[in-house]
Amino acid sequence: MGGCFSGDVRGGMEAVGGGARGATAAAGQCQGQGGPNEAVDHFFQGQALRLYTPLELSFSASKLRNMDALSKSDPMLVVYTKMDGRLEEIGRTEVILNSLEPLWITKAMINYQFEIVQPLVFRIYDVDTKYHNTPLKMLNLAQQDFLGEAFCNLSEIVTKFNHSLTLNLRNGSGHALQGTVTVHAEETASSRMAVDMQFHCLNLDNKDTFSKSDPFLRVSRLSESAVAIPICKTEVIKNNLNPVWRPITLTSQQYSSKDDPLLVECFDFDASGNHELIGALQTTIAQLENLYNSKAGANFYSHKGQKKLKGQLFLDKFQEKVQHTFLDYISSGFELNFMVAVDFTASNGDPRVPQSLHYIDPSGRPNSYQQAILGVSEVLQFYDNDRRFPAWGFGAKIPRGSVSHCFNLNASTNDCEVVGVEGIMSAYSSTLYSVSLAGPTLFGPVISKAAEIASHSVQYGNNKYFVLLIITDGVITDQQETKDSIVRASDLPLSILIVGVGNADFTQMRILDADFGKRLESSTGRVATRDIVQFVPMREVQGGQVTVVQSLLEELPGQFLEYMRTRDIKPRPPQHASAPPAYPPPPQL
Fold first, then answer.
1. What string of H, E and C letters represents the secondary structure of 520-535?
2. Of 7-16, 246-255, 504-513, which has the strongest mean pLDDT?
3. d(Cα 139, Cα 27) in Å, to the nearest integer?
4. What are the Cα distances from residue 233, in Å, to 60, 106, 228, 276, 517?
5. What's the pLDDT at 544?
6. What is the CATH number of domain 191-322?
7. Phi first, then psi: what are they for 312, rounded to 5°?
8. Burial level of 131, CB count in 10 A (0-12/13-18/19+)?
9. Mean pLDDT of 48-74
10. % residues pLDDT > 70 (the chain)
11. What are the residue boundaries of the VWFA domain, all occurrences included (predicted)?
Protein backbone atom coordinates (compact mmCIF):
# COMPACT_ATOMS: atom_id res chain seq x y z
CA MET A 1 0.00 0.00 0.00
CA GLY A 2 2.96 2.22 -0.48
CA GLY A 3 4.75 4.73 1.71
CA CYS A 4 1.78 6.91 2.59
CA PHE A 5 1.95 8.62 6.00
CA SER A 6 -0.79 10.73 7.49
CA GLY A 7 1.83 11.35 10.13
CA ASP A 8 4.17 11.61 7.15
CA VAL A 9 7.70 12.91 6.95
CA ARG A 10 6.48 16.47 7.34
CA GLY A 11 4.50 15.63 10.47
CA GLY A 12 1.19 14.80 8.79
CA MET A 13 1.28 17.77 6.42
CA GLU A 14 1.17 15.86 3.11
CA ALA A 15 -1.96 14.91 1.19
CA VAL A 16 -3.33 11.36 1.54
CA GLY A 17 -5.85 9.42 -0.52
CA GLY A 18 -6.70 12.07 -3.11
CA GLY A 19 -4.57 10.83 -5.99
CA ALA A 20 -4.70 8.03 -8.53
CA ARG A 21 -4.85 5.13 -6.13
CA GLY A 22 -5.68 1.47 -6.14
CA ALA A 23 -4.11 0.75 -9.51
CA THR A 24 -3.25 -2.83 -8.78
CA ALA A 25 -6.29 -3.49 -6.66
CA ALA A 26 -8.64 -2.20 -9.30
CA ALA A 27 -6.78 -4.13 -11.97
CA GLY A 28 -8.02 -7.42 -10.61
CA GLN A 29 -11.61 -6.44 -11.26
CA CYS A 30 -11.24 -6.06 -14.99
CA GLN A 31 -11.15 -8.88 -17.50
CA GLY A 32 -9.21 -8.22 -20.67
CA GLN A 33 -11.15 -6.82 -23.59
CA GLY A 34 -8.51 -6.82 -26.29
CA GLY A 35 -8.46 -10.49 -27.23
CA PRO A 36 -6.09 -13.22 -25.97
CA ASN A 37 -3.15 -11.85 -24.01
CA GLU A 38 -0.65 -14.06 -22.18
CA ALA A 39 0.16 -11.37 -19.63
CA VAL A 40 -3.52 -11.05 -18.68
CA ASP A 41 -3.92 -14.83 -18.57
CA HIS A 42 -0.90 -15.09 -16.28
CA PHE A 43 -2.23 -12.28 -14.08
CA PHE A 44 -5.52 -14.03 -13.49
CA GLN A 45 -3.90 -17.46 -13.08
CA GLY A 46 -1.63 -15.94 -10.45
CA GLN A 47 -4.67 -14.53 -8.67
CA ALA A 48 -6.24 -18.04 -8.53
CA LEU A 49 -9.27 -16.49 -10.16
CA ARG A 50 -12.66 -17.65 -8.84
CA LEU A 51 -15.98 -16.10 -7.96
CA TYR A 52 -15.47 -13.45 -5.30
CA THR A 53 -16.67 -10.07 -4.11
CA PRO A 54 -14.03 -7.32 -3.79
CA LEU A 55 -14.23 -5.57 -0.42
CA GLU A 56 -12.55 -2.46 0.95
CA LEU A 57 -11.65 -2.52 4.67
CA SER A 58 -11.50 0.70 6.72
CA PHE A 59 -10.01 0.92 10.20
CA SER A 60 -10.26 2.95 13.38
CA ALA A 61 -9.22 2.37 16.98
CA SER A 62 -10.19 3.71 20.38
CA LYS A 63 -8.60 4.07 23.82
CA LEU A 64 -5.19 2.83 22.73
CA ARG A 65 -2.38 2.53 25.24
CA ASN A 66 -0.03 5.53 25.36
CA MET A 67 3.56 4.34 24.93
CA ASP A 68 5.21 7.79 24.68
CA ALA A 69 6.38 9.81 27.67
CA LEU A 70 6.06 13.37 26.35
CA SER A 71 3.36 12.89 23.70
CA LYS A 72 0.83 10.33 22.54
CA SER A 73 1.37 7.14 20.56
CA ASP A 74 1.82 7.34 16.75
CA PRO A 75 -0.30 4.32 15.71
CA MET A 76 -0.18 2.30 12.49
CA LEU A 77 -2.30 -0.76 11.72
CA VAL A 78 -1.11 -3.83 9.81
CA VAL A 79 -3.66 -6.33 8.50
CA TYR A 80 -2.93 -9.97 7.65
CA THR A 81 -4.77 -12.94 6.23
CA LYS A 82 -4.02 -16.38 7.62
CA MET A 83 -3.14 -18.88 4.90
CA ASP A 84 -2.25 -22.49 5.75
CA GLY A 85 -1.38 -21.50 9.30
CA ARG A 86 0.93 -18.66 8.30
CA LEU A 87 0.31 -14.92 8.18
CA GLU A 88 0.34 -13.03 4.89
CA GLU A 89 0.41 -9.23 5.09
CA ILE A 90 -2.17 -7.53 2.86
CA GLY A 91 -1.68 -3.90 3.87
CA ARG A 92 -0.48 -1.16 6.21
CA THR A 93 -2.23 2.06 7.06
CA GLU A 94 -0.52 5.41 7.29
CA VAL A 95 0.88 6.57 10.65
CA ILE A 96 -1.34 8.94 12.66
CA LEU A 97 0.68 11.29 14.85
CA ASN A 98 -0.12 11.79 18.53
CA SER A 99 -3.45 9.99 18.68
CA LEU A 100 -5.02 7.34 20.89
CA GLU A 101 -8.22 7.51 18.79
CA PRO A 102 -6.88 7.05 15.24
CA LEU A 103 -9.17 7.12 12.21
CA TRP A 104 -7.02 5.84 9.35
CA ILE A 105 -7.57 6.86 5.71
CA THR A 106 -5.60 4.10 3.96
CA LYS A 107 -7.76 1.10 3.14
CA ALA A 108 -7.01 -2.58 2.55
CA MET A 109 -8.48 -4.55 -0.32
CA ILE A 110 -9.58 -8.17 0.07
CA ASN A 111 -11.65 -10.60 -1.97
CA TYR A 112 -14.50 -12.12 0.01
CA GLN A 113 -15.17 -15.75 -0.91
CA PHE A 114 -18.33 -17.34 0.46
CA GLU A 115 -17.06 -20.92 0.25
CA ILE A 116 -13.96 -20.56 2.47
CA VAL A 117 -13.11 -19.32 5.96
CA GLN A 118 -10.93 -16.20 5.76
CA PRO A 119 -9.20 -15.49 9.10
CA LEU A 120 -7.93 -11.92 9.55
CA VAL A 121 -5.38 -10.55 12.03
CA PHE A 122 -5.07 -6.86 12.89
CA ARG A 123 -1.97 -5.59 14.68
CA ILE A 124 -1.41 -2.02 15.87
CA TYR A 125 2.03 -0.52 16.45
CA ASP A 126 3.30 2.75 17.91
CA VAL A 127 5.87 3.91 15.32
CA ASP A 128 8.93 5.44 16.96
CA THR A 129 9.71 9.03 15.95
CA LYS A 130 13.14 8.14 14.57
CA TYR A 131 11.48 5.96 11.90
CA HIS A 132 9.13 8.66 10.56
CA ASN A 133 11.40 9.15 7.53
CA THR A 134 11.30 5.44 6.67
CA PRO A 135 8.87 4.30 3.94
CA LEU A 136 6.06 2.19 5.42
CA LYS A 137 7.05 -0.88 3.45
CA MET A 138 10.54 -0.72 4.97
CA LEU A 139 9.46 -0.37 8.62
CA ASN A 140 10.79 -3.19 10.79
CA LEU A 141 7.78 -4.00 12.96
CA ALA A 142 9.97 -5.64 15.61
CA GLN A 143 11.49 -2.21 16.31
CA GLN A 144 8.09 -0.59 17.01
CA ASP A 145 6.04 -0.71 20.23
CA PHE A 146 3.26 -3.31 20.04
CA LEU A 147 -0.12 -1.87 21.06
CA GLY A 148 -2.18 -5.03 20.62
CA GLU A 149 -3.81 -7.37 18.13
CA ALA A 150 -7.28 -8.68 17.31
CA PHE A 151 -8.67 -11.60 15.31
CA CYS A 152 -11.84 -12.35 13.38
CA ASN A 153 -13.11 -14.04 10.24
CA LEU A 154 -14.12 -11.87 7.31
CA SER A 155 -17.59 -13.41 7.38
CA GLU A 156 -18.08 -12.01 10.90
CA ILE A 157 -17.72 -8.49 9.52
CA VAL A 158 -19.91 -8.80 6.43
CA THR A 159 -22.77 -10.43 8.34
CA LYS A 160 -23.07 -7.44 10.69
CA PHE A 161 -25.94 -5.08 9.91
CA ASN A 162 -23.69 -2.10 9.13
CA HIS A 163 -20.68 -4.23 8.09
CA SER A 164 -18.72 -2.93 11.11
CA LEU A 165 -17.16 -5.03 13.87
CA THR A 166 -15.41 -3.77 17.02
CA LEU A 167 -12.82 -6.08 18.58
CA ASN A 168 -10.96 -5.92 21.87
CA LEU A 169 -7.19 -5.77 21.61
CA ARG A 170 -5.06 -8.54 23.12
CA ASN A 171 -1.36 -9.16 23.59
CA GLY A 172 0.61 -11.90 21.88
CA SER A 173 -0.38 -14.38 24.61
CA GLY A 174 -4.09 -13.72 24.20
CA HIS A 175 -4.55 -11.65 27.37
CA ALA A 176 -6.79 -8.58 27.15
CA LEU A 177 -5.19 -5.16 26.64
CA GLN A 178 -6.55 -1.65 26.74
CA GLY A 179 -8.21 -0.46 23.53
CA THR A 180 -10.38 -1.63 20.66
CA VAL A 181 -10.13 -1.75 16.87
CA THR A 182 -13.13 -1.30 14.56
CA VAL A 183 -13.17 -2.75 11.05
CA HIS A 184 -15.68 -1.62 8.43
CA ALA A 185 -16.17 -3.49 5.13
CA GLU A 186 -17.70 -2.09 1.96
CA GLU A 187 -18.24 -3.70 -1.39
CA THR A 188 -16.23 -1.81 -3.99
CA ALA A 189 -17.86 -0.36 -7.06
CA SER A 190 -16.64 -1.47 -10.47
CA SER A 191 -17.18 1.92 -12.08
CA ARG A 192 -14.11 3.64 -13.50
CA MET A 193 -15.53 7.13 -13.12
CA ALA A 194 -13.49 9.67 -11.18
CA VAL A 195 -13.62 13.41 -10.59
CA ASP A 196 -10.75 15.91 -10.43
CA MET A 197 -11.37 18.81 -8.04
CA GLN A 198 -9.41 21.76 -6.74
CA PHE A 199 -10.54 23.61 -3.61
CA HIS A 200 -9.79 27.01 -2.15
CA CYS A 201 -11.21 28.85 0.85
CA LEU A 202 -11.80 32.47 1.77
CA ASN A 203 -12.05 34.21 5.14
CA LEU A 204 -11.34 31.21 7.35
CA ASP A 205 -11.47 31.77 11.09
CA ASN A 206 -8.05 32.25 12.65
CA LYS A 207 -7.33 29.70 15.38
CA ASP A 208 -3.76 30.83 16.19
CA THR A 209 -2.73 33.67 18.49
CA PHE A 210 0.60 34.84 17.09
CA SER A 211 0.19 33.74 13.46
CA LYS A 212 -2.50 32.54 11.07
CA SER A 213 -4.08 29.11 10.88
CA ASP A 214 -2.41 26.24 8.97
CA PRO A 215 -5.50 24.81 7.24
CA PHE A 216 -6.09 21.46 5.55
CA LEU A 217 -9.25 19.74 4.33
CA ARG A 218 -10.43 16.23 5.15
CA VAL A 219 -13.14 14.64 3.01
CA SER A 220 -15.16 11.74 4.43
CA ARG A 221 -17.95 9.58 3.09
CA LEU A 222 -20.97 9.25 5.39
CA SER A 223 -22.26 5.69 5.67
CA GLU A 224 -25.93 4.79 6.08
CA SER A 225 -25.40 4.71 9.83
CA ALA A 226 -23.90 8.27 9.66
CA VAL A 227 -20.37 7.00 10.33
CA ALA A 228 -17.76 9.32 8.72
CA ILE A 229 -15.22 7.27 6.74
CA PRO A 230 -12.24 9.44 5.68
CA ILE A 231 -11.33 9.07 2.01
CA CYS A 232 -8.72 11.81 1.52
CA LYS A 233 -7.09 14.88 2.98
CA THR A 234 -5.28 17.75 1.33
CA GLU A 235 -1.81 18.99 2.15
CA VAL A 236 -1.40 21.64 4.87
CA ILE A 237 -1.10 25.28 3.75
CA LYS A 238 0.87 27.12 6.40
CA ASN A 239 -0.07 30.52 7.83
CA ASN A 240 -2.94 31.24 5.42
CA LEU A 241 -6.64 32.08 5.88
CA ASN A 242 -7.30 32.01 2.12
CA PRO A 243 -5.64 28.72 1.11
CA VAL A 244 -5.54 27.18 -2.36
CA TRP A 245 -4.82 23.44 -2.28
CA ARG A 246 -3.40 21.20 -4.97
CA PRO A 247 -5.98 19.27 -7.06
CA ILE A 248 -7.31 15.97 -5.75
CA THR A 249 -8.85 13.03 -7.59
CA LEU A 250 -11.71 11.05 -6.06
CA THR A 251 -12.78 7.78 -7.64
CA SER A 252 -16.32 6.44 -7.60
CA GLN A 253 -15.03 3.68 -5.30
CA GLN A 254 -14.32 6.43 -2.78
CA TYR A 255 -17.49 8.53 -3.05
CA SER A 256 -19.91 5.71 -4.14
CA SER A 257 -22.46 7.81 -6.03
CA LYS A 258 -22.82 11.49 -6.85
CA ASP A 259 -25.76 11.79 -4.45
CA ASP A 260 -24.23 10.03 -1.44
CA PRO A 261 -23.43 12.42 1.45
CA LEU A 262 -19.90 13.65 2.04
CA LEU A 263 -18.47 15.55 5.00
CA VAL A 264 -15.86 18.24 4.26
CA GLU A 265 -13.98 19.40 7.34
CA CYS A 266 -11.39 22.17 7.53
CA PHE A 267 -8.84 21.87 10.35
CA ASP A 268 -6.03 24.03 11.71
CA PHE A 269 -3.01 21.72 11.73
CA ASP A 270 -1.22 21.15 15.04
CA ALA A 271 1.97 19.07 15.28
CA SER A 272 0.70 17.63 18.57
CA GLY A 273 -2.08 15.87 16.67
CA ASN A 274 -4.79 17.99 18.30
CA HIS A 275 -6.00 19.63 15.09
CA GLU A 276 -8.62 22.29 15.74
CA LEU A 277 -11.79 22.29 13.65
CA ILE A 278 -12.19 25.54 11.70
CA GLY A 279 -15.49 24.53 10.13
CA ALA A 280 -17.38 21.73 8.38
CA LEU A 281 -20.13 21.24 5.85
CA GLN A 282 -22.11 18.33 4.45
CA THR A 283 -22.42 18.01 0.68
CA THR A 284 -22.43 15.57 -2.25
CA ILE A 285 -20.43 15.28 -5.45
CA ALA A 286 -23.48 16.55 -7.35
CA GLN A 287 -23.71 19.62 -5.09
CA LEU A 288 -19.98 20.28 -5.47
CA GLU A 289 -20.47 20.21 -9.25
CA ASN A 290 -23.27 22.79 -8.93
CA LEU A 291 -21.03 24.87 -6.68
CA TYR A 292 -18.33 24.88 -9.36
CA ASN A 293 -20.77 25.78 -12.16
CA SER A 294 -22.29 28.63 -10.17
CA LYS A 295 -18.86 29.95 -9.06
CA ALA A 296 -20.44 30.42 -5.64
CA GLY A 297 -19.04 29.53 -2.23
CA ALA A 298 -20.45 27.23 0.45
CA ASN A 299 -20.32 28.40 4.05
CA PHE A 300 -18.70 26.32 6.72
CA TYR A 301 -20.54 25.62 9.96
CA SER A 302 -19.27 25.22 13.49
CA HIS A 303 -19.26 21.90 15.30
CA LYS A 304 -22.50 19.94 14.63
CA GLY A 305 -23.80 22.78 12.44
CA GLN A 306 -24.72 25.05 15.32
CA LYS A 307 -23.45 28.26 13.75
CA LYS A 308 -22.94 29.50 10.20
CA LEU A 309 -19.41 30.82 9.72
CA LYS A 310 -17.99 33.47 7.39
CA GLY A 311 -15.41 31.08 5.96
CA GLN A 312 -16.38 29.68 2.56
CA LEU A 313 -15.34 26.77 0.35
CA PHE A 314 -14.94 27.25 -3.43
CA LEU A 315 -14.12 24.94 -6.34
CA ASP A 316 -11.64 26.06 -8.99
CA LYS A 317 -11.89 22.78 -10.90
CA PHE A 318 -14.47 20.04 -11.33
CA GLN A 319 -13.90 17.53 -14.10
CA GLU A 320 -15.35 14.04 -14.46
CA LYS A 321 -13.28 11.45 -16.28
CA VAL A 322 -12.92 7.74 -16.91
CA GLN A 323 -10.15 6.25 -14.77
CA HIS A 324 -8.71 3.36 -16.78
CA THR A 325 -7.01 0.55 -14.85
CA PHE A 326 -3.61 -1.02 -15.37
CA LEU A 327 -5.14 -4.13 -16.91
CA ASP A 328 -7.24 -2.00 -19.28
CA TYR A 329 -3.97 -1.00 -20.90
CA ILE A 330 -2.24 -4.39 -20.70
CA SER A 331 -5.22 -6.27 -22.10
CA SER A 332 -5.46 -3.85 -25.03
CA GLY A 333 -1.90 -4.49 -26.22
CA PHE A 334 0.34 -2.24 -24.10
CA GLU A 335 3.65 -3.83 -23.08
CA LEU A 336 6.15 -3.58 -20.25
CA ASN A 337 9.63 -3.97 -21.76
CA PHE A 338 12.21 -5.20 -19.23
CA MET A 339 15.87 -4.05 -19.18
CA VAL A 340 18.63 -4.93 -16.69
CA ALA A 341 21.99 -3.42 -15.69
CA VAL A 342 24.45 -5.26 -13.40
CA ASP A 343 27.20 -3.75 -11.23
CA PHE A 344 30.63 -5.29 -11.96
CA THR A 345 32.71 -3.00 -9.76
CA ALA A 346 35.57 -4.44 -7.70
CA SER A 347 33.81 -3.81 -4.38
CA ASN A 348 31.69 -6.91 -5.10
CA GLY A 349 34.75 -9.10 -4.45
CA ASP A 350 36.53 -11.71 -6.56
CA PRO A 351 33.79 -13.89 -8.17
CA ARG A 352 35.92 -17.00 -7.51
CA VAL A 353 35.73 -16.50 -3.74
CA PRO A 354 32.59 -17.64 -1.81
CA GLN A 355 32.46 -14.29 0.06
CA SER A 356 31.95 -12.40 -3.22
CA LEU A 357 28.50 -11.06 -4.03
CA HIS A 358 29.09 -12.41 -7.57
CA TYR A 359 30.09 -15.92 -6.44
CA ILE A 360 28.37 -18.65 -8.48
CA ASP A 361 27.59 -21.47 -6.04
CA PRO A 362 28.22 -24.92 -7.61
CA SER A 363 25.20 -26.24 -5.68
CA GLY A 364 22.95 -23.95 -7.74
CA ARG A 365 22.00 -21.60 -4.92
CA PRO A 366 21.57 -18.17 -6.56
CA ASN A 367 23.59 -15.19 -5.36
CA SER A 368 21.95 -11.82 -4.62
CA TYR A 369 22.33 -10.62 -8.22
CA GLN A 370 20.78 -13.78 -9.59
CA GLN A 371 17.92 -13.61 -7.07
CA ALA A 372 17.04 -10.06 -8.13
CA ILE A 373 17.29 -10.84 -11.86
CA LEU A 374 15.19 -14.00 -11.56
CA GLY A 375 12.57 -12.50 -9.26
CA VAL A 376 11.82 -9.38 -11.32
CA SER A 377 12.24 -10.88 -14.80
CA GLU A 378 10.01 -13.86 -14.05
CA VAL A 379 7.18 -11.44 -13.22
CA LEU A 380 7.74 -8.93 -16.03
CA GLN A 381 8.48 -11.41 -18.84
CA PHE A 382 4.77 -12.09 -19.31
CA TYR A 383 4.16 -8.43 -20.17
CA ASP A 384 6.80 -8.37 -22.94
CA ASN A 385 5.65 -9.98 -26.17
CA ASP A 386 8.99 -10.82 -27.81
CA ARG A 387 10.85 -11.50 -24.53
CA ARG A 388 14.02 -9.93 -25.84
CA PHE A 389 15.62 -7.98 -23.00
CA PRO A 390 18.40 -5.36 -23.21
CA ALA A 391 21.07 -6.38 -20.67
CA TRP A 392 24.10 -4.31 -19.69
CA GLY A 393 26.97 -4.32 -17.26
CA PHE A 394 28.85 -1.36 -15.78
CA GLY A 395 32.02 -0.69 -13.80
CA ALA A 396 34.27 -3.36 -15.38
CA LYS A 397 37.25 -3.48 -17.69
CA ILE A 398 36.08 -5.26 -20.83
CA PRO A 399 38.32 -7.53 -22.95
CA ARG A 400 40.77 -5.58 -25.13
CA GLY A 401 39.38 -2.33 -23.80
CA SER A 402 39.23 0.08 -20.91
CA VAL A 403 36.76 0.42 -18.02
CA SER A 404 33.20 0.69 -19.37
CA HIS A 405 30.17 2.03 -17.57
CA CYS A 406 27.70 0.57 -20.05
CA PHE A 407 28.59 -2.56 -22.02
CA ASN A 408 26.45 -5.33 -23.51
CA LEU A 409 26.23 -8.47 -21.38
CA ASN A 410 26.05 -10.65 -24.48
CA ALA A 411 29.49 -9.39 -25.62
CA SER A 412 27.97 -8.14 -28.88
CA THR A 413 29.07 -4.75 -30.11
CA ASN A 414 25.82 -3.78 -31.83
CA ASP A 415 22.97 -5.65 -30.12
CA CYS A 416 22.29 -5.41 -26.40
CA GLU A 417 19.34 -7.82 -26.30
CA VAL A 418 19.26 -11.37 -24.95
CA VAL A 419 16.42 -13.86 -25.30
CA GLY A 420 14.35 -14.73 -22.26
CA VAL A 421 15.20 -14.99 -18.57
CA GLU A 422 17.61 -17.81 -19.38
CA GLY A 423 19.44 -15.48 -21.78
CA ILE A 424 19.98 -12.90 -19.03
CA MET A 425 21.25 -15.51 -16.56
CA SER A 426 23.58 -17.07 -19.12
CA ALA A 427 24.99 -13.72 -20.27
CA TYR A 428 25.54 -12.66 -16.63
CA SER A 429 27.48 -15.85 -15.80
CA SER A 430 29.60 -15.61 -18.95
CA THR A 431 30.45 -11.96 -18.33
CA LEU A 432 31.77 -12.70 -14.84
CA TYR A 433 34.67 -14.65 -16.33
CA SER A 434 35.36 -12.40 -19.32
CA VAL A 435 35.71 -8.99 -17.64
CA SER A 436 37.86 -7.57 -14.85
CA LEU A 437 35.96 -5.99 -11.99
CA ALA A 438 36.94 -2.31 -11.64
CA GLY A 439 35.04 0.91 -10.83
CA PRO A 440 33.81 3.48 -9.93
CA THR A 441 30.01 3.02 -9.63
CA LEU A 442 28.25 5.20 -12.23
CA PHE A 443 24.53 5.01 -13.04
CA GLY A 444 24.33 7.90 -15.50
CA PRO A 445 25.45 6.01 -18.64
CA VAL A 446 23.06 3.04 -18.26
CA ILE A 447 20.10 5.29 -17.40
CA SER A 448 20.86 7.46 -20.42
CA LYS A 449 21.05 4.33 -22.63
CA ALA A 450 17.69 3.08 -21.35
CA ALA A 451 16.18 6.55 -21.86
CA GLU A 452 17.51 6.58 -25.43
CA ILE A 453 15.66 3.32 -26.18
CA ALA A 454 12.45 4.60 -24.56
CA SER A 455 12.68 7.89 -26.47
CA HIS A 456 13.22 6.06 -29.75
CA SER A 457 10.17 3.90 -29.07
CA VAL A 458 7.92 6.95 -28.51
CA GLN A 459 8.60 8.06 -32.07
CA TYR A 460 6.99 4.87 -33.37
CA GLY A 461 4.02 4.55 -31.03
CA ASN A 462 2.98 4.83 -27.42
CA ASN A 463 2.10 1.26 -26.44
CA LYS A 464 5.45 0.38 -24.80
CA TYR A 465 6.57 1.20 -21.26
CA PHE A 466 10.12 0.37 -20.20
CA VAL A 467 11.36 -0.94 -16.86
CA LEU A 468 15.08 -0.73 -16.05
CA LEU A 469 16.38 -2.91 -13.19
CA ILE A 470 19.75 -1.78 -11.77
CA ILE A 471 21.47 -4.10 -9.26
CA THR A 472 24.38 -2.60 -7.34
CA ASP A 473 26.48 -3.18 -4.23
CA GLY A 474 27.67 0.36 -3.62
CA VAL A 475 26.99 4.05 -3.46
CA ILE A 476 27.14 5.90 -6.77
CA THR A 477 29.92 8.39 -7.39
CA ASP A 478 28.07 10.32 -10.11
CA GLN A 479 25.07 11.34 -8.04
CA GLN A 480 24.43 14.64 -9.83
CA GLU A 481 24.78 13.11 -13.29
CA THR A 482 22.42 10.33 -12.18
CA LYS A 483 19.90 12.90 -10.93
CA ASP A 484 20.15 14.78 -14.23
CA SER A 485 19.56 11.61 -16.27
CA ILE A 486 16.58 10.61 -14.08
CA VAL A 487 15.01 14.07 -14.39
CA ARG A 488 15.38 13.91 -18.19
CA ALA A 489 13.93 10.38 -18.24
CA SER A 490 10.89 11.37 -16.15
CA ASP A 491 9.22 12.62 -19.35
CA LEU A 492 9.62 9.19 -20.98
CA PRO A 493 7.74 5.87 -20.60
CA LEU A 494 10.36 4.54 -18.20
CA SER A 495 10.57 3.36 -14.59
CA ILE A 496 13.81 2.52 -12.78
CA LEU A 497 14.04 -0.22 -10.14
CA ILE A 498 17.22 -0.25 -8.04
CA VAL A 499 18.21 -3.18 -5.80
CA GLY A 500 21.01 -2.65 -3.29
CA VAL A 501 22.89 -5.88 -2.41
CA GLY A 502 25.50 -6.36 0.30
CA ASN A 503 26.13 -4.28 3.40
CA ALA A 504 27.03 -0.86 1.97
CA ASP A 505 25.52 2.35 3.36
CA PHE A 506 22.71 3.10 0.89
CA THR A 507 21.51 6.31 2.57
CA GLN A 508 22.32 8.45 -0.48
CA MET A 509 20.47 6.05 -2.76
CA ARG A 510 17.18 6.81 -1.04
CA ILE A 511 17.41 10.36 -2.36
CA LEU A 512 16.80 8.98 -5.84
CA ASP A 513 13.54 7.39 -4.67
CA ALA A 514 11.14 10.31 -4.19
CA ASP A 515 8.88 8.36 -1.82
CA PHE A 516 8.31 11.39 0.40
CA GLY A 517 6.80 13.65 -2.22
CA LYS A 518 9.92 15.72 -3.00
CA ARG A 519 10.81 15.20 -6.65
CA LEU A 520 14.37 15.16 -7.91
CA GLU A 521 15.91 18.37 -9.20
CA SER A 522 18.58 18.54 -11.90
CA SER A 523 21.75 20.65 -11.86
CA THR A 524 19.93 23.22 -14.01
CA GLY A 525 17.03 23.51 -11.53
CA ARG A 526 14.56 21.46 -13.56
CA VAL A 527 12.24 19.31 -11.41
CA ALA A 528 11.29 15.76 -12.43
CA THR A 529 7.79 15.57 -13.88
CA ARG A 530 7.08 12.42 -11.87
CA ASP A 531 8.72 9.89 -9.55
CA ILE A 532 10.13 7.03 -11.66
CA VAL A 533 12.57 5.39 -9.20
CA GLN A 534 11.96 2.64 -6.66
CA PHE A 535 14.94 1.69 -4.46
CA VAL A 536 15.01 -1.38 -2.22
CA PRO A 537 18.02 -2.55 -0.16
CA MET A 538 17.81 -6.34 -0.23
CA ARG A 539 19.07 -6.84 3.33
CA GLU A 540 16.16 -4.82 4.78
CA VAL A 541 13.53 -6.95 3.07
CA GLN A 542 15.01 -10.46 3.19
CA GLY A 543 13.30 -12.64 5.75
CA GLY A 544 10.29 -10.33 5.94
CA GLN A 545 6.73 -11.02 4.90
CA VAL A 546 7.05 -8.78 1.82
CA THR A 547 9.49 -10.05 -0.83
CA VAL A 548 12.11 -7.95 -2.59
CA VAL A 549 10.16 -8.32 -5.83
CA GLN A 550 6.90 -7.16 -4.21
CA SER A 551 8.66 -4.12 -2.74
CA LEU A 552 10.22 -3.29 -6.10
CA LEU A 553 7.13 -3.71 -8.22
CA GLU A 554 4.41 -2.30 -5.95
CA GLU A 555 4.71 1.25 -7.34
CA LEU A 556 5.15 0.23 -10.98
CA PRO A 557 1.45 0.08 -12.01
CA GLY A 558 0.93 3.53 -10.49
CA GLN A 559 3.93 4.98 -12.32
CA PHE A 560 2.69 3.42 -15.56
CA LEU A 561 -0.81 4.86 -15.08
CA GLU A 562 0.54 8.30 -14.14
CA TYR A 563 2.52 8.45 -17.39
CA MET A 564 -0.47 7.35 -19.51
CA ARG A 565 -2.96 9.66 -17.80
CA THR A 566 -0.82 12.78 -17.82
CA ARG A 567 -0.36 12.34 -21.56
CA ASP A 568 -4.01 11.44 -22.13
CA ILE A 569 -3.01 8.08 -23.63
CA LYS A 570 -6.02 5.79 -23.49
CA PRO A 571 -6.26 2.01 -23.83
CA ARG A 572 -6.92 0.80 -27.31
CA PRO A 573 -10.54 -0.06 -28.08
CA PRO A 574 -11.33 -3.77 -27.88
CA GLN A 575 -10.85 -5.81 -31.02
CA HIS A 576 -14.30 -6.80 -32.19
CA ALA A 577 -14.84 -10.17 -33.78
CA SER A 578 -15.37 -10.17 -37.53
CA ALA A 579 -18.98 -9.82 -38.66
CA PRO A 580 -20.83 -13.11 -39.28
CA PRO A 581 -21.21 -14.05 -42.92
CA ALA A 582 -24.34 -12.77 -44.66
CA TYR A 583 -26.64 -15.56 -45.81
CA PRO A 584 -29.34 -15.21 -48.44
CA PRO A 585 -32.90 -15.05 -47.11
CA PRO A 586 -34.76 -18.37 -46.93
CA PRO A 587 -36.78 -19.19 -50.02
CA GLN A 588 -40.45 -18.26 -49.88
CA LEU A 589 -42.88 -21.16 -49.73
1. CECCCCCECCCCCEEE
2. 246-255
3. 26
4. 16, 11, 13, 15, 15
5. 56
6. 2.60.40.150
7. -130, 150
8. middle
9. 82
10. 87
11. 337-556
Give DSSP secondary structure letters for 325-374: -HHHHHHTT-EEEEEEEEE-BGGG--TTSTTSTT---TT----HHHHHHH
Whether 356 and 350 have beta carbons less than 8 Å apart is answered as yes
Three-state SS for 166?
strand
Q: Please, what sign has the CA dihedral across residues 398, 404, 409, 412?
A: negative
Q: Would the pLDDT of 163 be above 80?
A: yes
- Letter for the amino acid at 161? F
* Among 330, 384, 342, residue whose Cα is nearest residue 497: 342
How many residues are given for the chain? 589
Sign of the dihedral through C-alpha 398, 402, 408, 413: negative
Domain extent listing, the chain: 53-187, 191-322, 326-567
pLDDT confidence band for 20 (50 / 70 / 90): very low
CA 454-459-465 angle, to 5 degrees, is 35
Per-residue pLDDT at 403 exceeds 70:
yes
Cα–Cα distance list, 135 to 7, 131, 242, 540, 552 (Å): 12, 9, 32, 12, 13
148 strand-pairing partners:
124
Q: Domain 53-187, CATH 2.60.40.150 — does that match?
A: yes
Distances (CA, A) of 463 to 17, 243, 331, 449, 558: 28, 40, 11, 20, 16
Verify cis geometry, omega within 30 degrees of 0, for the bond prior to 440. Answer: yes
Q: SS3 letters for 546-580?
A: CCHHHHHHCCHHHHHHHHHHHCCCCCCCCCCCCCC
187 vs 415, more confident:
415
How many secondary structure helices (H) and strands (E) does the chain include? 13, 26
pLDDT at position 144 is 94
Say if residues 394 and 406 touch (Cβ distance below 8 Å): yes
> Looking at residues 29-34, what average pLDDT do you find?
34
285 pLDDT higher than 90: yes
Strand partners, 281: 264
Averaged over 99-128, what is the pLDDT?
Answer: 91
- Domains 53-187 and 191-322 alike in fold: yes
- If one compares 527 and 190, the residue with the highest pLDDT of the two is 527
The three state secondary structure string of 394-450 is ECEECCCCCEECCEECCCCCCCCEEEHHHHHHHHHHHHHCCCEEECCCCCHHHHHHH
pLDDT in tens, 442-484: 999 999 999 999 999 998 887 999 999 999 998 889 999 999 9
The Cα 395–Cα 387 span in angstroms is 26
Q: What is the mean pLDDT of residues 42-69?
A: 71
> What average pLDDT does the structure give for the chain?
85
